[in-house]
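Consider the tokenized backbone below.
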């Protein structure tokens, strides 16, 4: 049992939370990271015992275009500022993991700058993928190179180059020796070289006991990344999507099916595949924005904290704040707002959302079955879902109700149980029967082990008008990515011949997709069509499944997804 097996994470995007400028002038350091010091006690109080924070290191803009892996971003302070932050977290018994952006660097990184200055004579020309001096790039440097996501600002590192591998492994060693960090979340792990990740895992095993590697992976067979040789865990985007859409569509079957598939993927063992679970983060809209009604906050978060995996709260979402993606270069800024501690700490004292999240965090830490227990589905309808987590012969039973009205849920059980949220007591004689309020839930703990130090809480009251449900088209569509914003547009299939697919886009121009080539050479829309085609071979493709594909506009992720079938 490692610390991360019982972790409840609090996710911080520091440049946003501290109100740092969008662009780095590389001037004198400003110690904005110190603004987060008082938040540590709040994080601890709401039941979190680990922080994922990043990106942290010197960069030119949003943080993922690294300039210097060994220097805290000037907009946040100095290395001593970061060292002090981690030390204070550890003093309050909170673990810390950093964002590791090792797939690509920014153009101000020393190796890339050397290529710009010395071109063919640069000793670093093999540090990046597919550098060629007969091409060009959007910055008009007179040479080409592979990037991430179509952005020349993000130059892709050659992860097969031994010098690059050694350099990044030395960065990890530096982070541990300098800052005493407890783990790393690997950005864009779904496009990292697997041998490269194995080197990182060997380094992780070397630098610190229980050093945790967690990777950002969108789709595919998570076992490819999370195993004994590569990473300990990956981001659970499958569950993230199922939780909000299952609630919005009154379709708990989607959630239960996703949970079963992932649990089976891990060998049907609670320790087989411990994924990093979340309902929102710095890249996706806030959960209260995605839900058709804020009433879904309670059942969705109950599931987040009680299903197999490691739960995480994104900063500010414990207050139920909204956050909708914008457009253009600043599209993610609404998801990454500044939060001033003095303003929010007062609100936390009486905030119903904070109280509810706090109760869930404390339950998670005190009830070991939620970290280590076997999972079993007990009851399922479109709007009701019950399951158990069994550990050392004792079962915790979770019930959630996705209806606006109360519903009595009956599941097989024996013994005396206490509701960890409500304090209610029930007796089960072969059957546990309990009425669950609308848009609510309960965590039933055996009375013999229910020595919980958790105050009774109420489900957060909802006063806002329910958002309308958007009815999507029924007929199949193909999506094409247009302009730099990668907006998704509808298209109509008009002819299919062999591996070429001809579509008619919105302006009526015929276009042919050639799918008879390696995935790496395909465009985003060609990859999307390949994935949709593979899905159709496995069964009916719903509008929601189609939208999942067309919403994904990351080339590397789509390649991985296509290969995963």
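A designed sequence for it:
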């Amino acid at each position: 049992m490692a610390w991360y097996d019982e972790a409840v994470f609090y996710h911080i995007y520091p440049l946003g939370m501290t109100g740092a400028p969008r662009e780095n002038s590389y001037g004198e350091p400003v110690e904005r990271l110190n603004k987060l010091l008082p938040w540590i006690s709040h994080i601890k109080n709401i039941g979190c015992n680990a922080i994922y924070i990043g990106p942290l290191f010197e960069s030119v803009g949003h943080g993922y275009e690294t300039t210097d892996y060994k220097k805290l971003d000037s907009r946040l302070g100095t290395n001593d500022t970061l060292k002090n932050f981690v030390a204070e977290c550890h003093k309050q018994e909170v673990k810390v993991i950093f964002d590791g952006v090792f797939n690509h660097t920014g153009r101000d990184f020393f190796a890339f700058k050397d290529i710009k200055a010395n071109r063919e004579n640069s000793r670093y020309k093999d540090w990046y993928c597919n550098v060629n001096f007969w091409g060009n790039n959007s910055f008009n440097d007179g040479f080409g190179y592979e990037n991430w996501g179509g952005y020349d600002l993000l130059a892709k590192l050659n992860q097969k180059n031994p010098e690059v591998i050694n350099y990044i492994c030395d960065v990890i060693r530096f982070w541990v020796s300098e800052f005493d960090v407890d783990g790393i979340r690997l950005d864009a792990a779904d496009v990292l070289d697997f041998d490269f990740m194995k080197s990182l895992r060997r380094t992780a095993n070397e630098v610190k006991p229980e050093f945790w590697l967690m990777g950002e992976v969108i789709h595919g067979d998570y076992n490819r990344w999370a195993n004994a040789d590569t990473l300990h865990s990956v981001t659970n985007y499958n569950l993230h999507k199922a939780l909000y859409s299952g609630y919005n569509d009154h379709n708990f079957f989607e959630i239960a099916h996703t949970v079963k598939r992932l649990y089976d993927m891990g060998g049907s063992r609670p320790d087989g595949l411990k994924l990093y679970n979340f309902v929102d983060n710095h890249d996706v809209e806030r959960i209260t924005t995605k839900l058709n009604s804020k009433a879904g906050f309670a059942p969705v978060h109950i599931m987040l904290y009680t299903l197999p995996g490691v739960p995480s709260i994104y900063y500010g979402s414990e207050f139920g704040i909204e956050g909708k993606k914008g457009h253009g270069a600043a599209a993610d800024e609404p998801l990454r707002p500044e939060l001033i501690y003095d303003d929010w700490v007062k609100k936390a004292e009486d905030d119903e959302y904070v109280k509810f999240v706090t109760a869930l965090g404390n339950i998670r830490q005190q009830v070991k079955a939620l970290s280590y227990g076997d999972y079993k589905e007990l009851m399922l309808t479109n709007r009701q879902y019950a399951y158990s987590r069994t550990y050392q012969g004792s079962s915790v039973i979770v019930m959630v109700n996705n209806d606006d009205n109360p519903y009595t849920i009956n599941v097989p059980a024996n013994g005396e149980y206490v509701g960890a949220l409500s304090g209610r007591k029930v007796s089960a004689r072969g059957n546990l029967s309990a009425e669950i309020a609308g848009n609510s839930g309960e965590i039933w703990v055996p009375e013999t082990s229910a020595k919980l130090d958790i105050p009774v809480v109420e489900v957060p009251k909802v006063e806002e008008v329910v958002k309308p449900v958007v009815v999507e088209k029924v007929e199949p569509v193909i999506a094409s990515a247009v302009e730099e914003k990668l907006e998704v547009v509808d298209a109509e299939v008009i002819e299919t011949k062999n591996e070429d697919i001809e579509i008619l886009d919105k302006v009526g121009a015929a276009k042919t997709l050639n799918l008879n080539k390696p995935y790496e050479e395909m465009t985003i829309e060609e990859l999307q069509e390949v994935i949709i085609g593979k899905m159709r071979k496995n069964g009916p493709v719903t509008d929601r499944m189609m939208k999942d594909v067309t919403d994904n506009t990351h080339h590397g992720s789509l390649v991985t997804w296509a290969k995963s079938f």
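The chain has four domains: 1-102+160-235, 104-158, 369-449, 478-563.
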